[in-house]
Amino acid sequence: MRRQPSIIRVIDLETTGNAPPQHGVCEIGWQDVALGADGRWELYGEGGNRLVNPGRSMPPVTQAIHHIRDEDVADAPWWHDVARAVLDPYPRRVALAAHRADFEQQFCTSAMTHGAQWICTWKCALRLWPDSPSFSNQVLRYWRKPDGLDHERGLPAHRAFPDAYVTAHHLRDQLNEASVAQLIEWSNIPALLPRVRFGVDRGKPWNEIEEESLVKFLTDRDPDVRFTAETELARRKGGGLVGRMSAQELLL
Are 103 and 219 within one domain? Predict the structure, then answer.
């Protein structure tokens, strides 16, 4: 019997709102990525999705995004009856992954995931593909045009399986550029932003702005902005780099 490979499970959640406990999960989708015999990561298996009863009414604002209605989930199982089986295909799972994984982690507690490590494909995209015009799941899809991505299978957007399927292609390509350990490390710290998001320097790479402007970002309320400014300041003083690391650095 052929041994099943270890996997990283990509998930996507559709919810009634931004954060528990006020909001609940109404759908989960997943798609696995596995290391092949040739040493390259590839999509593995068919993936899937489950509707979930969120235990509360679906606000019109969120219905307008994912088009899941109260009647669609009225007879669906509860989140605690669905989550563990999907999130913890133990012992084969190496990690979980999601695009902007901080959102999914709010709903997927450590008890549900068996203490899984997480990879955030958004944070990793900022590091590996800083030239992208934007870093949303769908912009990356159309900017990068990942090999093998079936257009129809990745639709409709803002439904759990299609979004997980698209994210899995980004993760596959990231794993073929950097190690699992490196992606997890980047995912566990604030995002390193390739360009300034606002102000007079909006759109500029961080290494092109004046130090007087850079210092002002050190007290910004956004931890990603603060971290990026701190990292760029350290680079100017000889203590670090901002932006994409070289292939040699990724191996260290």
Answer: no
Distances in Å between the Cα of 179 and the Cα atoms of 120, 169, 175, 228 are 14, 16, 6, 22
Same domain, 48 and 160: yes
Cα within 13 Å of Cα(169), Cβ side: 21
Tokens of 67: 């088009």
The answer to whether residue 13 sits within a structural domain is yes
Q: What is the pLDDT of residues 118-131, one digit of tens each?
A: 999 999 999 999 99
Number of structural domains (the chain) is 2
Type of residue found at 161 = F
Residue ranges making up the domain that contains 235 = 206-251
**Is residue 15 in some structural domain?**
yes
User: Alpha helices of 35-179 — where are they, by DSSP H?
Assistant: 60-66, 70-73, 79-87, 101-107, 110-113, 121-128, 137-144, 160-175
> What is the rounded distance in angstroms from the CA atom of residue 27 to the CA atom of residue 68?
9
Residue 154 is part of a domain; what is its CATH number? 3.30.420.10
pLDDT tens readout for residues 57-71? 999 999 999 999 999
> Residue 27 pairs with which residues in a beta bridge?
14, 51
Residue carrying structure tokens 């760029």: 232
Residue 194 lies in a domain: no
CB atoms within 10 A of CB 151: 7
Write down the pTM of the prediction.
0.92
- 160 and 243 assigned to the same domain: no
Rounded distance, CA 120 to CA 186, Å?
8
pLDDT band at 252 (very low <50, low <70, confident <90, very high): very low
